[in-house]
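Entry:
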Amino acid sequence: MNTPPSPPGAERTDGSAVRIGALVPLTRPGWVEAGRHLLAGLELAVREVNDAGGILGRPLELVVRDTAADPHRAAAAVDELARLGVAALAGEYHSVVARAAAARADALGLPFLCSSAVLDALTEQPTQWVARLAPAQSHGWRIYADFLLGSGHRRIAVAAQPSVYWASGARILRDYLAPRGGTVIELDMSELTPAAVCDELVDNRATALLLLVGHPEPAVPIVKSVRRDQRLAEILIGAPAGQPEFAEWATLLGEDGAAIPFLRYLPERLGPLGARVGTALRERLGEAPSFVAFEGYDTVAVLADVLRSNGADRARTAESWPRVAVEGTRGQIRFSRTPGISVWQWAWTPVQVVDRDPAEPDRFRILHAG
């Protein structure tokens, strides 16, 4: 599949720039809103790096490629970006897509700093070429499971679509909850309608339903169906993957989209850097920035620091992951080897369980922190 050209201004041909390839979902079926926030963070950080003198006097440039949530398209983009001579790769939101990109980056010897994807097994084998800012799925989702147990939920249904990412999430929840008295009931959304989900929840006496499905389809119809079913007035709907984070969720669901806890990767209070960047991101986006926008900014902040120390040499960049010590928007960023994780991992960014306040759906409430 041909990869579309970069947006105007994303590339220059004079050879003077240090280039970073950016993988971002910008069209459907990718989660476009997440991609827009990720790109805003990447672009803001690049602008600030260049305002401060660039990389040893050379401008830093993004070469943007739209992955559209397609692993094959992402792998082809990595091949193309490697040929174009980028110093490193950044970005990607979707875990399955990031996994394909990481495999190609590893094979080509191209450093890849993954911004947002959380799948534990980002590569099949340990690699020196890939590092990650987002917390691993097993870390965040166990914190979410602690929140469920602390809220008194023991019979938990998961409405899941077929996917490596959703299957991994269901397994993490099941393995963590079972020894603690919890039961996970899996509902296959390739076979059930939203109305049938309601019947299954009643039949299984579930007290919580977790949405391990895509947004807006079928997440939005499931929420609407459950909210309208009088038998399920007391059930908790949860979305550990973060679907309610973005404004589109509130637009599509209104009050029905409130009180649905999800994971986000922000501290309770941002420090001075985070607050300043948050203000600039809000101006750029025209709305409150999500944690994904901060992930984008931090990605470029780390890569710029590494490139200033090592130039654009790919091997030296990959060798420098364990020496990174960068003040990010959400804390000090350092990478280490974490058991069970094949890439260099920031362990750990702050993790919160939050929801939209039913009294004011544009306001988020922090319910639990890990």
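The first helix runs from residue 32 to 51.
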